Amino acid sequence: MILTLLLMQGQALAPTDFTALLPGDPGEKTINIGGRFMEDYSFFSGGEMTEAALGTTFDDGAEVRRARIRVFGDLSENIAYKMEYDWAGGTASLKDAYLKFTIDEIGDVFVGHQYEPLGLNTVTSSRYITFIERSTLSEAFMPERNMGVSLWNHTDAWTVSGGLFRDADNQGKTTDEGWGATARAVYRPVFRDQGRSLVHLGVGASFRQADGMAQFRARPEAHLLPRFVDTGVLAADQVTLVNLEAAWQEGPFHAMLEYTMADLTDDAGGVEPSFSGFSIQGGWFLTGENRGYSTGKGIWGRVKPRTLALHDGDEGCGAWEVALRYSNLDLTEAVAVADELDSITAALNWYLNNNTRIMLDVTQADLDSLDSTTIVALRFAFDF
Questions:
Q1: Under 8 Å between Cβ of 42 and 224
Q2: For residues 66 and 46, is the Cβ–Cβ distance under 8 A?
Q3: 75-76-79 Cα angle (round to 5)
Q4: N or C: which end of the chain has fewer CB within 10 A?
Q5: Which of 247, 227, 241 is nearest to 276 (CA)?
Q6: What is the mean pLDDT of the chain?
Q7: Largest Cα–Cα distance of the chain, in whole Å?
């Protein structure tokens, strides 16, 4: 096997900058190497009543939140692959691992370990989300990655996707009878200038065979804190998830709204609670940039600064963004949950170049019958 390494020097790195060509017949086979690294520092204050109720203390700390290496490329003209592992925490966990088949007039068929198509904030890569952590509704309700097969197709105005999945652990292993059927449709009545002017409207749903039990829980948008709300294990044979999403972008201004509802069904006639959550956020690029957007999956993409910071011969300052988010998670129909969880987060993001950013989040998380916890989080991140 002959490898040819292509290294682009003197410019911001992109995932295809490291490419190995594998000659063969038919078609050109390629290996691309990519990765991401995110290091977080978190500081907590208040929340004494919440600490007592949870039986723990909120200690300041630091962690490597993500440390991923991925390989991806083409096996032939219409067959691609991707494999990605995360080494954060010292144990390898499987992320994306799939084959992609591109079939004319049908679309892209993905087979393997992958995101289920549900939720704009969830399906958008952690490299491109505005805040350090996704909203509470994403953690509580979204199925994230599982083993299965999905179909994606799109035009400039539409993105449609759907698939069948088996519940899997972080090694891609399925050990129970849980499965899900998930679908999502996105309509863009406005899409101009590659998404700099954008209106995005979407709906998604997932019907899940719960194997007799279900559980919903979430942290207050801080990974080092324990889960503030937790339904415990509930008797359930089916779970139905419905998600509504909307996004808007006009030049440097952007906004997003999501609402999710979860209904449980117990064939034995037990209690069948319903849960819900919503998140609304907005942001502004002080330096005039905009969020990237991909019509292929109907998700946010990379921010590309107009100038580079700390770059030889360039007096630019990179891209600067301010943002605000309010999230609400209501799990109170479960006996174990007394309060709704409300979180307000203000963010300041500095994009030094296409692949490097520094993020600062300040969050106030509230449980009504207890008290408020203030969270200050700082992230240093890069990807290639």
A1: yes
A2: no
A3: 75
A4: N
A5: 241
A6: 92
A7: 70
C-alpha span between 66 and 84 (Å, rounded): 12
Place of tokens 């290639």: 384
Helices and strands (H, E) in the chain, number of each type: 3, 22
Here the tokens at position 292 are 């990237």
Q: What is the dihedral of CA 272, 223, 131, 357, to 10 degrees?
A: -150
Assess contact for 94 and 82: CB atoms under 8 A: no
Give the count of beta carbons closer than 10 Å to the beta carbon of residue 120. Answer: 24
The pTM score is 0.91
Residues 330-357: pLDDT tens digits? 999 999 999 999 999 999 999 999 999 9
Q: Residue 141: which H helix or E strand, with range?
A: helix 136-141
H or E stretch including 178? none
CB 146 within 8 A of CB 116: yes
> Does residue 220 contact residue 363 with C-beta atoms inside 8 Å?
yes
Q: Which amino acid is located at 366 in the chain?
A: D
Query: Angle at CA 30, nearest 5°, toward 116 and 9?
Result: 105
Lookup: tokens for 334? 């479960």
Which tokens hold the place of 89? 């925490």
Output the CA–CA distances (angstroms, integers) from residue 271 to 214, 267, 382, in the order listed: 13, 10, 46
Structural domains of the chain, ranges and CATH numbers in brackets: 5-383 (2.40.160.10)
4: left (phi over 0), alpha (psi -120 to 50) or beta: beta
